Amino acid sequence: MSIQTPSKFVAAGLAAAMISGCGTNILSRNEEIQVGREGSRGLESKYRLSTNQSDIALVNNIGNRIVTANNLTEWPWTFKVIDDPTVNAVSLPGGPVYVFRGLLDALGRNESELAGVIAHEIAHIEKRHAAKQYSSQVITMGGIQVLTGGDTRTVVQLANMLLQLEYSRGDEYDADTTGIGYMYRAGFDPWGLVRVFEKLQRLNNEGQGNVVTNVLRTHPLTRDRIERAKREIERITQAIDRDREALEMIDSE
Ligand SMILES: [Zn+2]
Q1: How many angstroms does the Cα of residue 201 sit away from the middle of ligand 1?
Q2: H-run or E-run covering 99
Q3: Could you give the 3-state DSSP secondary structure of residue 120?
Q4: 90 C-alpha to center of ligand 1: Å?
Q5: Rounded distance from Cα 252 to ligand 1 centre (Å)
Q6: Closest Cα to residue 29, out of 119, 159, 125?
Q7: Of 43, 108, 110, 228, which has the fewest CB atoms closer than 10 Å, so is most exposed?
């Protein structure tokens, strides 16, 4: 596949975004996928990928199960494990999801807890949150090139930039809610998400905040957010159950 030349500037998008205010995604779906691919190359030259087959299989099985059960066919999804002790998980625009070995260790490779994290990352991609943040960063920097042209140094810079993006509270809540529905429809226990939150909070309170700084900075965790997730689990699981019962009634008629 040919690497796109660095000719894409965002002047037109910039004007459009300024008119409509912040939080606008100026990337097309295709550009979003390309930005994610370049970001992936940068990330994978910065970090080593895991070769642990059981970890790779675990993360892929959970990711693919969520994608299939929720019919998320719009993006070229990839699920990879980074061989690094940091407690973190990241998603890039357009499909790539990475789980750090440190997170697998912290969660004891618990399936429903990992599903909570992966479903949340999938929701950020599906709802195009990262692309929106990336767009606003591009706009802030005065219309830098959307794509790097594939040079190794610049794809690493792009990866660093994508990893530093901070989501708004609204986007976090949206990813929590959406992710809870994804988990439940894929047959995972949605309370796994709450258990992850509580574990991360405990690690942080125990003074191991340095190991979880990344995940808490890009996805800030507050008591309100945890309480909200609990209420959302009750609400969403009941709604999905009602839909299922209604379908069963129709099927049995
Ligand atoms: Zn998040």
Answers
A1: 15
A2: strand 96-100
A3: helix
A4: 8
A5: 40
A6: 125
A7: 108
Q: Compute, in angstroms, the gap from residue 5 CA to the centroid of ligand 1.
A: 31
Burial class (CB in 10 A: 0-12, 13-18, 19+), 137: middle
Task: Give 199 Cα–ligand 1 centroid separation in angstroms.
Answer: 16
- Cα 114 to the center of its chain, rounded Å: 13
DSSP H or E run through 162: helix 152-164
If you measure from the C-alpha of residue 121 to the centroid of ligand 1, how many angstroms do you get, rounded to a whole number? 6
**Beta strands 96-100; 89-91: pairing state:** antiparallel
**167 Cα: distance to centroid of ligand 1 (angstroms):** 7
Edge-to-edge strand order for the sheet containing 96-100? 78-82, 96-100, 89-91
Is residue 65 scored above 70 in pLDDT? yes
Distance 221 CA to ligand 1 centre (A): 9
Identify the sign of the CA torsion 140, 45, 72, 218.
negative
In angstroms, the CA 240 to CA 172 distance is 21
Q: How far away, in angstroms, is 30 Cα from ligand 1 center? A: 23
Say what the pLDDT of residue 7 is. Answer: 34
Q: Decide if pLDDT at 62 tops 80.
A: yes
Model's pTM, two decimal places?
0.85
Q: Phi and psi dihedrals of 79, rounded to 5?
A: -125, 115
pLDDT at 19 over 80: no
Q: What is the pLDDT of residues 195-221, one digit of tens each?
A: 999 998 888 777 665 555 556 666 767
Average pLDDT over residues 105-114: 95
Q: What is the Å distance from ligand 1's center to 134 Cα?
A: 14
How high is the pLDDT of residue 142?
63
